[in-house]
Amino acid sequence: xxxxxxxxxxxxxxxxxxxxxxxxxxxxxxxxxxxxxxxxxxxxxxxxxxxxxxxxxxxxxxxxxxxxxxxxxxxxxxxxxxxxxxxxxxxxxxxxxxxxxxxxxxxxxxxxxxxxxxxxxxxxxxxxxxxxxxxxxxxxxxxxxxxxxxxxxxxxxxxxxxxxxxxxxxxxxxxxxxxxxxxxxxxxxxxxxxxxxxxxxxxxxxxxxxxxxxxxxxxxxxxxxxxxxxxxxxxxxxxxxxxxxxxxxxxxxxxxxxxxxxxxxxxxxxxxxxxxxxxxxxxxxxx
Length: 287
Ligand SMILES: C[S@@+](CC[C@H](N)C(=O)[O-])C[C@H]1O[C@@H](n2cnc3c(N)ncnc32)[C@H](O)[C@@H]1O
What we know:
Bound molecules: S-adenosylmethionine
Organism: Promicromonospora iranensis
Low-confidence stretches: 1-27
Binding site for S-adenosyl-L-methionine: 47, 49, 94, 117, 133
Strand content: 15-25%
EC number: 2.1.1.184
Distance between the termini: 42 Å
Family: Belongs to the class I-like SAM-binding methyltransferase superfamily. rRNA adenine N(6)-methyltransferase family.
Shape: elongated
Mean pLDDT: 89
Strand order of the largest sheet: 1-5-4-3-6-7-10-8
Number of helices: 11
Keywords: Methyltransferase, RNA-binding, S-adenosyl-L-methionine, Transferase
């Protein structure tokens, strides 16, 4: 980690500690925003991880890199404490003061516990890795938020099984995945049975790994235009991609060449495309 980075981090932490001294009896707990008691365990999606194999797997998926970690939705620390043993600066964010109070008393010195809403928490802009056992009711807003944040390099997420599959484009991609694919690569790591949590949720979960591409398939300034294109094609009318793209104004010969190069059959649907095929189609549209 650069000196610059560590001095910024310690400045940030110092500010947080100052806040925490005012707000909490435990010096490691920082309150970023004044929340009332936020709700019951069910409302907060408090399905806590209890399966040690899954916990170990999540920790193993954190890349071996010299950068801080952020954990969203830390709960009572099922992941926080094993992550802390990696010895990297770790900020654990949780909204429930009952959990942050408890966590603040047990974490080692490299961990800062922040009481905040993960939909508003401002993580570092410098590179870091993120872990989150996502409260199920917040899955889509958390994913949307993640894609707009610039600092994280890898996000290891636990989500509902169907969401993890869809976001990793297993059995077909969603529009959200297609729209961010040039900048992130998603991967489904494994299924996590409902019995790995207490209380037990009604559905299984999955471990989803998102990596920021070191070399994006498109430059950042093309993002909006590309995302509009992806939405128009995804929701476009036609019996398959050839027809949809032709209706979108792409020359038929170019579409045929693109389809050959990307192994796309004429009747294929937008959800069947991979990241390279999406970018290829977008490039044809820009010619
Ligand atoms: C699925 S549990 C995960 C807890 C812990 N990481 C684990 O794996 O056992 C989700 C956690 O997110 C917390 N939470 C719910 N909504 C939140 C929000 N908006 N901001 C921060 N934490 C939230 C809940 O209180 C709960 O502790």
